[in-house]
Amino acid sequence: MATAGKVVSAAAISAKEFGDLLDRYPSLVQSVSDGKAAKTGQKTLVELDQYRYVEAPDCFRLDEPKRPMAHDDVKALVEWKL
Fold first, then answer.
1. Which domain of life is it from (predicted)?
2. Does the reported pTM lie above 0.85?
3. What mean pLDDT is predicted for residues 43-65?
């Protein structure tokens, strides 16, 4: 399996390894979020991750967007990225 801190090319990782690592993603995000408190008025990393991977794609999907993207939506995505 790929080791932490080592970049592995897509051609060198098996589907099982990828799946195993992907399964660990939620606990990793929770651990990082727990170790770094959100500033006052900001969302936690877990909240930002939920927004990035669940709420935003549902709200702004190309085929039937629920509403236009607003400035605060872009700010949340940039905050997640940082």
1. Eukaryota
2. no
3. 93
